[in-house]
Amino acid sequence: MAHIPYIEGTGRLATLYVDGRPFHIRGGELHNSSASDLRYMEERVWPALRPLRLNGVIAPVYWECLEPEEGVFDFELVDGLIAQARREGVKLVLLWFGLWKNGASTYIPLWAKNDPERFGIVRNAGDRPLGYMGGTWDPTVSPLCRDAVAADARAFAALMAHLRDTDGERTVVMIQAENEIGVVGAARDYSERAEAAFAEEIPAALAETFGVHGTWSEAFGADAAETFMAWHYARAVETIVSAGKAEYPLPVYVNAWLEQAPGVPGTYPSGGPQFKMHRVWRAAAPHVDLYAPDIYVPNFRDVCDEYASDGNPLFIPEARGPVDAVANFLYAVGEHNAMCFAPFGIEDVAGRAEELDPQVLAQLNISPEAMGVAADGARLLGGVYGAVGSMEDVIEKAHREGKIHGFLDNGNASEIIDLENIRLRISYGGPFGGAKHAAGGLVIELGDYELLVLACGCAIEFEAPEHTGMKLDLLRKEEGRFEDGRWVRGRILNGDERYRNTFGKEAQLQRFMFRAYR
Ligand code: DGJ
Question: Which of 14, 22, 106, 183 is in the most buried spot, having the most CB atoms within 10 Å?
Fold first, then answer.
């Protein structure tokens, strides 16, 4: 039987192993409700995904469907989804929509919703129960409510035991615990139970991690409310995840709704795994393998750099739609060896399947353009996923040897990358002075004077670094592809194409050979 998927290493060298081989997810996350109906999946979703050349799909498992009556489990949806994924030849990452989804507790079973005594709700400073979405009241169960956390942990453990017993093929490769955790609408829980806990001394693990002591306010001052919630959410997740891993130890991550202006906890989920709370989460939840950003903001690059800056492997379970996806994907792979890249609402890429109401997006702090669909989105994403898939070994080796870099238009007109023997001057802004496309790429040093570039939306000039006093002569430039790990050249670009190295809207793979002379 194949080995259980596992992660080895940290940072850009962290690797997910599936069937004993490195596995990088070139995927997409489904809309929230798609996986609640297997027929909808058959008719609307899988046909839309086929052109995209995905190797992984991120799909929810809903507590309300898994445990319709307390203690009675129904695995029909999970089994059906796994069977469909096997037939399609893709792996699955399952999202455990348990106690929390975008902060609120909308996916808890009806028997739990109807028992507010047992499933205690977060209360705001005015001692009113908290709910945040527009016209609907969406209560948020408090992570300090032990009974609720125990009930979630039992259901999650049942799911993991079922996967252990039925998924010998290892179709499910990772799990997301909950979804975008945190209190929305207040900085913290002010219920009676939370007030008592907030007045206590901070836990020893935090005192040791931060070198502070006293009550939460004494130790963390202005950050006390958010740190308090982060600790309690992370402890709740630790209870849930460790119960699941005791049954079946798949790698588990927790995803973050990013902090955005005005930067006040509660306007984004307070206590979630935002970057600044990683140390708190790590101290409280050792069974969590990594923290994943959901990136709908335009400064994709900064978010990647931040989330990958402390040894945390870069895993992007939700990203802006296909308009930006090609360039963003190349940057995440080239610069950070991303373990996963997945645009959200992936079934929309080949044409809109589900329209998300702009007002709902506003509630979630997502600009409608982040969900934009491109007419040729499926071709562009399928093309770049295919190209990267065919050169996985080359990319893996380049990361191990430190011979690969990513680049991405960050709003600046240009950027410079200095390799050992070659300087790249990259200009963004439409290759032929035409429309501006998403722009970025990756460069791999194959040898001292030999490069591979996979890029879109930019033009690149190559020169010898000034200090060498050398000049560069372009010996040869080819387009091509990898087949069975071997370079197969296409056209040799030795005519007009020689004078300017442009990369259009579609990701293009080119190989350059130079000679240096004085
Ligand atoms: C982020 C959430 O994690 C997703 O489940 C989804 O609600 C998107 N926002 C918005 O559609």
Answer: 183
State whether the beta carbon of 133 lies less than 6 angstroms from ligand 1.
no
Strands 25-29 and 56-62: parallel
Distance CA 1, CA 376 (A): 41
For residue 253, the CA-to-ligand 1 centroid distance in Å is 16
Place of tokens 């010998």: 168
Going by pLDDT thresholds of 50, 70 and 90, the confidence category of residue 248 is: very high
CA 102 to ligand 1 center in whole angstroms: 7
Our mutation pick for probing the ligand 1 site, out of 94, 96, 297, 318, counting the most ligand atoms within 8 A of Cβ, is 318
pLDDT of residue 322: 73
Distance CA 4, CA 174 (A): 10
Mean per-residue pLDDT for 374-399? 94
Cα–Cα distances (Å) from 254 to 90, 188, 265, 488, in that order, read: 22, 19, 18, 40
> Quick one: average pLDDT of 257-275?
95
Cα 201 to ligand 1 centroid, rounded to whole Å: 35
Residue 60 pLDDT:
98
Q: What six digits make up the tokens of 260?
A: 């955005």
Phi and psi torsions of 268, nearest 5°: -120, 165
Nearest-CA residue for ligand 1 atom 9 is 364
Distance in angstroms (rounded) separating the CA atoms of residues 151 and 154:
5
Residue 179 CA: nearest ligand 1 atom is 3
Ligand 1 midpoint to CA 150 (Å): 25
Write down the pLDDT at residue 392.
96
Residue among 96, 97, 364, 366 to mutate when testing ligand 1 (max atoms within 8 A of CB):
364
Q: How far apart are the first and last CA of the chain?
A: 59
One DSSP character per residue, 152-186 reads HHHHHHHHHHHHHHH-TT--EEEEEEEES-SBSSS
For 188, the token pair is 């913290």
**Domains, the chain, ordered by start:** 25-374 (3.20.20.80), 396-517 (2.60.220.20)
SS3 126: coil
**132: pLDDT confidence band, cut at 50, 70 and 90?**
low
Nearest in space to 63 (alpha carbons), one of 74, 47, 51, 54: 74
CB of 296 closer than 6 A to ligand 1? no
Please tell me what DSSP assigns to residue 80.
Answer: H
Nearest CA among 335, 344, 261, 250 for reference residue 295: 344
Q: Cα(360)–Cα(104) distance, rounded to whole angstroms?
A: 14
pLDDT band of residue 419 (cuts 50, 70, 90) is very high
Q: Which of 93, 180, 359 is the pocket-test mutation for ligand 1 (most atoms within 8 Å of CB)?
A: 180
